[in-house]
Design brief:
Helices cover about 70% and strands about 5% of the residues. It is mainly α. Strands 1-3-2 form a 3-stranded antiparallel β-sheet.
């Protein structure tokens, strides 16, 4: 298999050099989120090193970083395991989102400017184009994350937005599983449109209710597919 990581470190989208650890981290995380490495799967540093085309040290550090994010478990004398999907973890993440994201949506409706509405409209247009074609789940998941990040940040509370970005990272593979449910993909798009309509109309209560309905819809779907 050809190396998936450049030995020279490569460059990110902004042109800056990306370390081998960062590249290993992104590659392994992508496989976990998209369930190419399914929940409960054992990971071997030697095999990962061979697949990525780099030494074990960057892979080792990448796995420890993923362990800090609770995407893998490092088990003494047993190796590394992709963290299983735990119902309690999903319930706690959903509870945290229900407390925070509707509040952020309401703040966004109070503070949004006309210029700030262009970006989420572009996101939803790209999502609509995906849905009209093959509806690639990975592309939709990235657009989903971008939409939520915008909604959380436009309210102006950067600390809360950073916390919610962490929630997004921890729940990314749950989003992938829920978006793999075909009817839910269309529903998510309609829910995003409802949130944006309320924010664009400067309707805090409507934005809060739309965001809450969206999270509850996700909860209903993810509990069916796991």
């Amino acid at each position: 298999m050809a190396p998936l990581v450049r030995r020279d470190g490569g460059a990110g989208k902004d042109g800056k050099r990306v370390s081998l650890v960062d590249q290993a981290y992104e590659c392994i995380k992508h496989r976990i989120v998209t369930t190419a490495f399914p929940p409960g799967a054992s990971l071997n540093e030697v095999q990962l090193s061979e697949e990525l085309g780099i030494g074990r040290t960057p892979v080792h550090h990448a796995l420890h970083r993923l362990a800090q994010e609770e995407l893998v478990d490092i088990l003494p004398r047993k190796g590394v395991r992709v963290r299983p999907v735990l119902h309690d973890e999903i319930a706690e993440l959903i509870e945290a989102r229900l407390v925070t994201e509707p509040y952020c949506a309401a703040r966004a409706a109070e503070r949004v400017t006309q210029d700030q509405l262009d970006y989420p409209r572009q996101i939803l247009a790209e999502a609509e184009a995906e849905l009209a074609g093959e509806a690639r789940i990975e592309a939709l998941m990235k657009l989903d994350g971008a939409f939520h990040s915008w909604a959380n940040r436009v309210g102006g509370n950067r600390v809360l937005a950073d916390v919610l970005d962490q929630f997004q990272d921890r729940s990314a593979r749950f989003w992938f599983l829920s978006l793999s449910d075909a009817p839910h993909v269309e529903q998510v798009h309609e829910e995003h449109k409802a949130i944006l309509r309320a924010i664009g109309a400067r309707d805090p209560e409507g934005a809060q209710q739309a965001a809450e309905a969206h999270i509850k819809s996700f909860r209903s779907t993810i509990l069916k597919v796991i």
